[in-house]
What does this fold into?
Amino acid sequence: MRCFVFIDGSNFYRGGKKLINDKSISLLKFDYTAFGKFLCQDNELVGIRYYIGAIKRHAGDQKSETMYADQQRLIAWLQQHNIPTVLGTIIKHPDKSFHEKGVDVRIAVEMIRMARLDEYDQAILISSDTDLVPAIEEVHSFKKKVKYIGFPSNQSFGLSKVADDLLLLRKEDLINFFPPHEK
It folds into this structure.
């Protein structure tokens, strides 16, 4: 079976950081390819895509500069491993909070388009966003399977219900995909 991994970067980052709970370990050195193969089990990994909101730099704002630099390092790391990054946007609300926009839509569109083009047999979806339930239902109409990968602290019961398979990640599932000196 051909597997394609769709990673909601923001969900993965937040869930992974919370699960690992170790500030000395950086997701900037995570082996996404080996992790994708782990998720596919004995099946063929045909690709991985990483979806994230693009961070904008604001002159004089050290936090935005640091976040932008970290995101650029992550994108470069993913590119070195032939993992395309698909960017959405990040908008600032009047209450000063930031929200990603367009990422889930991009995941949904690509899951459906690639299912229609028969580019995979099983989508492996790492997200916790229930907005993706209709996309999974549409992927099923192309006779494709969907495996939902989530985190125990933020499990989407909507995604759990419609997916064909479910894996809630444990710290042990992630820790092996960091360089040995970071564990």
In short: The beta strands are 2-8, 44-53, 85-92, 98-101, 122-126, 145-150, 165-168. The first strand starts at residue 2 and ends at 8. Residues 62-80 form the longest helix (19 residues). DSSP finds seven helices and seven strands in the chain.
